[in-house]
Amino acid sequence: MAFTGGCMCGKVRFTIEADAPLTARACWCRACQYVGAGTGTANAVFPRDKVTITGETKGYESLADSGNHMTRLFCPTCGTPVFSVAAERPNAVVVRLGTLDDPSALAPLMTIWTSQAPRWACFDPNLPKEAGQPAPPPVR
Length: 140
Known about the structure:
Largest sheet: 7 strands, mixed
Strand content: 35-45%
CATH topology of the domain at 21-116: Metal Binding Protein, Guanine Nucleotide Exchange Factor, Chain A
Order of helices and strands: EEEHEEEEEEE
Strand order of the largest sheet: 6-7-8-9-4-3-10
Radius of gyration: 14 Å
Structural class: mainly beta
Number of strands: 10
Distance between the termini: 16 Å
């Protein structure tokens, strides 16, 4: 199975040759609230070697609350946040679910960093919740 997607203007495109992500999470850490313009983000993690990216991306590097050294990649033309990578896990790439051509193809399996969410945040009652960062998924 392949997943495809890209940024809003179409200059960044990707194909993921995997049947399923390593994990998928809704994240409410403070950094994701900035990326999500006030909401959390919905993300799926894939092995890096399963993701093919075309087009130019720009990155912003920062230290996450988890302690990971993150680079958040976005389209320099339209500004769409598309990917994140952690220096501590170079074999994995985080893909924003909203950038999938079919954003219903994958859904979060849990909600993380609920301790940093604003009071008005809505959580899916059917998903497990973590106050902070859970252990990273193993890269297959």
